[in-house]
What does this fold into?
Amino acid sequence: MTLAALGERRIIEIIQKQLDIMPEMPIPFGDDVSAYDLGNGKMAILKTDFLVDKTDVPPGMSLWQAARKAVIMNISDFAAKGVRPLALLVSLALPRDMNGKDIEEIGKGLNSGAREYDTHVIGGDTGEALNLIINPSVFGIAKKGRVALRSGAIPGDFVAVTGFFGNTSAGLKILTEEIKASPALRRALVNSVLMPHARLAEGLILTQTGAVSAAIDSSDGLAWSLHEISEASHVGFLIDRLPIAHEAEGFAKTNGLDPLELAMYGGEEYELVLTIKPRLWRKAEQAIENVGGKLMLIGKATSMRKVLLATNGKKQEIEARGYEHFVG
Amino acid sequence: MTLAALGERRIIEIIQKQLDIMPEMPIPFGDDVSAYDLGNGKMAILKTDFLVDKTDVPPGMSLWQAARKAVIMNISDFAAKGVRPLALLVSLALPRDMNGKDIEEIGKGLNSGAREYDTHVIGGDTGEALNLIINPSVFGIAKKGRVALRSGAIPGDFVAVTGFFGNTSAGLKILTEEIKASPALRRALVNSVLMPHARLAEGLILTQTGAVSAAIDSSDGLAWSLHEISEASHVGFLIDRLPIAHEAEGFAKTNGLDPLELAMYGGEEYELVLTIKPRLWRKAEQAIENVGGKLMLIGKATSMRKVLLATNGKKQEIEARGYEHFVG
It folds into this structure.
């Protein structure tokens, strides 16, 4: 069976099956970050996530933007877990036909991504390959028991997100399928793809509230994120407000596209998808507002293990699909 | 200027020039590992080093061996610095035509490499690329001031290595140029390439002696390692014993090759190259013997900044060359 037939998630399963599990692993395989128990109530938090030119860099994205994005992707996972990134290493696989100017641009992009989140690139490795691959790995420290896993949601918890969805899907369509949009709309949508932001301030402040029961970033799409929490926490979700961005909604209308499709099954969006303890909702909402963000209630966790969307009086099931490497 | 013309070291320089330097960086750019100051006299130690099928996996090396080697490469840098690896992440860029069995083999190889050194793979990432790239990143903790940098050698220090050199060069020649050798010799030489070992026990025990003034692993070749310490420490070296493996010497003789070339300019060898404070030599030697290793005196650090080899009464300069990505 080829990798395309297996798909990324099955590949990861196969690898994990070969690995001896570290005793007392503070965060299980498959969560947004990994952890090592340092004793004294502290954990080292580690994350690596890489970008490949062919699959993760749309046409129109500069090398500077690609390098910056590779950093943001990783910091977003730290944001979801409410952990401050302290330092990054970066591995760079570089195609031979690049030149010194390209390398400079990549270096500047890495630095920008790191500095925006008050951290630094402190080392790395380079080598030659057919693809450009930018692979940051990030280190941080967290208190034990203070990291929101994917597995902590219980029925009745509120479901919330830190921003609207759909703009990156629309932006990707503009970049890859050359679908037209007005200049201003085009700029907004494309910009959401080229210049993503990680919700680090939001993630860090939320950790302090103790309000979050489960968290994930939405890099594989909102639908997929909900299904990941659903599976890890053994809950379902009833979503009653689709957090679609109005730009994406307008774009969908003009081009005869399904707004639900754009908002749910996109990916490359770096919002946080959270479940919040109801009694601490106001505290969480206030904390997020204090750092200039917004926390939007979109539904509730349920004991029935389905992800349902209820809009205009009818319920539909949200499928477990989203962006997956190797597939397609 | 293409990457081939620039060469790996210049590429790294260009990238570093774009990076803001983290204040109070406990280990400078370019050493074997990177570090983050945790306070309380401790540092987080981080390392990432990747293997690419095209450049780092010789013919005859299985996927299991390649995955294991990728881990060993990284652990060897921890060994050089005397730091225990505590946990690994692994990024895997996988070509589409691989299958589930290949993935299984890679997983098993990663696990073997980690378990041999009493550590675990605790996470990672996968994605699709044209090359197979195996990119571990390693985490550890060290006491501040207890990590032997490349920069600590002073004139008069002894130069020592933890093993003999030349077998991997000879083994690579057998694998890539199909040079013949007797079955037993072939096995020994090829095995040194396919099944490298990191000198972790040696590195860890040496740290405790306080005897090491500078250290590096020899993955880019003995000559290159000596030049790296020379440059970082502002010293030269007078090497008066060439630590050539007798297998490599025999192979050189039979095939009309220069044994010096094999021993000095090879690479893919994971010995430690160390400078030792003379008054602590016996202590260091004893410590290494206690863990079943050997510490071989090969020369002295000098104030004249040249790397010289003195054999049979004549001195020759050892060039600053070795394995470099992108070049050739």
Observations:
- Chain B has two domains: 3-143, 158-317.
